[in-house]
Amino acid sequence: MDLSNLKQNHKKLISHMEEKGYSKSYIHTVRIEIDRILLHEKENSWDSYQDVYRDYESSPHSKRSLLRKATLIGLIANYDLEGLYPGEHQWHTSYKLVVFLILIFH
């Protein structure tokens, strides 16, 4: 999985979230997830963001925790792959996000 765009541009996502008034704790959570993805990219054989999620799914997590992770990973994937910022689009109608959520909550 090519994460070069995320590496180069993730600070724009964080800045956007700050400008839009997202809470500091949520921004921190997004930042932690981005850092985790970038830190572990070489030691994992991820081909997609679904694989990133499946790493969480393969270890003990509650359904609620997995839903939070899916939301975070979906937000990051939409930004990285589609250039979509949160709060400016109808996330629930994004086709790729819907497919992603269907795949992970089968």
Summarize the structure.
Helices cover 68% and strands 0% of the residues. The protein is mostly helical and 106 residues long.
Can you describe what's shown?
This protein has 5 helices and no strands. It is an all-alpha fold.
Layout of secondary structure:
Elements: H1 4-19, H2 24-40, H3 49-57, H4 63-82, H5 95-104
Helix pairs in contact: 1-2, 1-4, 3-4
How many domains make up the coordinates?
A: 1
State the low-pLDDT regions, or none: none
- Residue-averaged pLDDT: 85
> What is the 3D form?
globular
Query: How large a portion of the residues is in β-strands, by DSSP E?
Result: under 5%
The secondary structure category is mainly alpha
Using DSSP, what is the number of strands?
Answer: 0
Give the % helix. 55-70%
Could you describe the largest sheet, including whether it forms a barrel? Answer: none
Order of SSEs: HHHHH
How far apart lie the N and C ends? 23 Å
Q: Measured on Cα atoms, how large is the radius of gyration?
A: 13 Å
How would you name the oligomeric state of the polypeptide chains in this document?
single chain
Number of helices: 5
Which descriptors apply to this entry?
single chain; 106 residues; 0% strand; mainly alpha; 5 helices
